[in-house]
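Protocol step 4 of 6: record predicted structures for both targets in the notebook before any analysis. Target 1:
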Amino acid sequence: MLPRTEIDGHAPSAAEVLPAALVNYGHVTVMQVRDRAVRGLDLHLARLDAANRELFGVGLDGGRVRDHVRHALADTADATVRVTVFRGDGGVSVMVTVRSPEEAVATPQGLRSVVYRRPVPHIKHTGTFAQIHYGRLAEREGFDDALLVDHEGVVSEAGIANVLCHDGDAFVWPDAPALPGITMRLLDRAGLGARRRTVRLADLPSFAAVFVTNSRGVSPVGRVDDRTVPHDTEIFERVTGLYASIPWDPL
């Protein structure tokens, strides 16, 4: 039955869950698993290792993570897997949660802008209260997620995704403090050829297309606040086709 959670390869006791529940200090990666394979597995493992060194002062062995993910999956072939790393009573613990698989939606998404930037934005950490809060507020207003901007309207990222734009000539990632997402890095590695430059909130409706990218894949953006954002089918098919060409790595 899903969802299913294990800590260090076994079903956790209440005592083992308490450190993660009570101390909001740890790091995360989320991956889509299909036929027991993952896109960009090396990037997920490198993300976990780098964050662990920065937060806890020690590396995190990729083989250990893979063993725990495989064990938690059991006979499940397709899933959403979240790996959360935190300091338990016996040292660094690896918690794996297995949920139903998710796919990016092809319908244009709505983003509600909010003045906020994540602390320590280069780490996918567990401090997500503000992202959840602003995301829920956005949903109450009929949007799909929050769009994070600074006081000058400079775009950094969405609440749970990176933002990708196309200016009519080339793809553009906003040049602002943000999480280097795995899908972002996979698209760059596959030859997206995206530039990095400052993107402002007021600029978004003038782009040929805008997208959000995360572990689910790539989705188009159709509106930001009360303004419509163009949807270009050809550009959308180009970026989703590139993403679909990325190989899957066996766990």
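Target 2:
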Amino acid sequence: MTDPKLDLTIDRPAESVPEMVVRRIRDAIAAGLLPPGRQLTERELVELTGVSRTSVREAMRHLQTLGLVEPSPSRGVRVARLGSDEVREIYEVRDALEPAVAELFVLRATDEEVAALVEKVQPRESGDKRLQAIYEFDELLLAGARNSLLKSMLEPLHTRIHALRSLSVTIPGRHEASAREYLEIAEAIAARSPERAAEAAHRHVRAAAKAALEAVEILEKKHPNS
């Protein structure tokens, strides 16, 4: 019989070291600190993160599966440069799925989850805090929809969409328009209207797609042979 006083349990961190590296690099890409095309060498990443080469290599493999980094024409990898065709496909899939998530959230979320979602879009934050609030909004929306298949399909897509935001907000007026669109989605959800929530999500995704494509096309003109 096990002695109840003998507790050898080891508390395990919520994330492994490679997962933490993935999250840090993903957040830096989304914030525009690591712009598209930025070279990422193993040596630099070891110095920046303070972790082993093995952890960096594992993190790079995962970031490649997420589509956030790609092999560089020179040595190592670079932050992925999404072409307009890829961006169009990403937003087509998002437009097909995200309105369904908004509708399911209305039907399945608790009052507490609705209140938490609405809180995320209040016009108080700016800059990095505003971006973080959007990430958390997306996470809350997926969690409250209670559909594991939709969640597994959209989470990797959201990672790439967040990376595109640093580009799309360079389009004049896009930052303010995006804030209004998120507020419209939250208001429709608070009113418990699945139809309004789905339509507001459609409008937001279409407007976001237009801005992202415009930003990527500008980048392609600046770097036509990259």
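Step 5 preliminary note on target 2. The longest helix spans residues 194-222. The longest strand covers residues 69-71.
Proceed to step 6 after PI sign-off.
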